[in-house]
Amino acid sequence: MTTKLEALELALRTALGEGAAITVALGEVTVVVKAAGYIAAMQTLRDHPALKFEQLLDLCGVDYSTYGEGSWDGARFAAVSHLLSIEHNWRVRVRVFAEDDDTPVLPSVVELWRSVNWYEREAFDLYGILFEGHNDLRRILTDYGFIGHPFRKDFPMSGYVEMRYDPEQKRVIYQAVTIEPREIIPRVIREETYGMNPGSKNLG
């Protein structure tokens, strides 16, 4: 008897052919496609009658530079989408890797699912992945003058610049991050009788 997961895997292999690598693990199906065939594969996933993934629920960026404790030797940046078919009541994960690690570029699927608009902007903002064909690709979570992409594995925890109000200039300014040495372990100072009822004796 064919399970629902096996039916989905078969439908995906039939519709996408050899242009996609399909794996099944932990009750989930993942499809990996190349950047050159990304748009065609996504359109097939949406329009093929045996698949009908009408909704794109999410898209996020991934930085694989430290994956597997540094043993990863593939492309660094990927976009991962989660699709839902209401008609068939099944889900699929789609992963596509950008070919250039220095300037990661992927095609935008905003023409297929309008819901991906803000998700692609988020992946651009946090990971620096450029989505070619996106009509409004600008930062969505960080400030307009923000430098770098904070979810990249090599982005410093303290950032590159800090913002503060300068009372002399009477305006907000940006400057290089300065971290003064400080004690991060709290000191707890209590009286010897802390927590004891008034009049009680210390039995210790």
From TrEMBL:
Its main location: membrane. NDH-1 is composed of 14 different subunits. Subunits NuoB, C, D, E, F, and G constitute the peripheral sector of the complex. The keyword rRNA processing does not apply. NDH-1 shuttles electrons from NADH, via FMN and iron-sulfur (Fe-S) centers, to quinones in the respiratory chain. The immediate electron acceptor for the enzyme in this species is believed to be ubiquinone. Couples the redox reaction to proton translocation (for every two electrons transferred, four hydrogen ions are translocated across the cytoplasmic membrane), and thus conserves the redox energy in a proton gradient. This is NADH-quinone oxidoreductase subunit C. Belongs to the complex I 30 kDa subunit family. It comes from Massilia frigida. The keyword Translocase applies. Its EC number is 7.1.1.-. Residues 31-160 form the NADH:ubiquinone oxidoreductase 30kDa subunit domain. It is a peripheral membrane protein. InterPro entries: NADH_DH_suC (IPR010218), NADH_quin_OxRdtase_su_C/D-like (IPR037232), NADH_UbQ_OxRdtase_30kDa_su (IPR001268), NADH_UbQ_OxRdtase_CS (IPR020396).
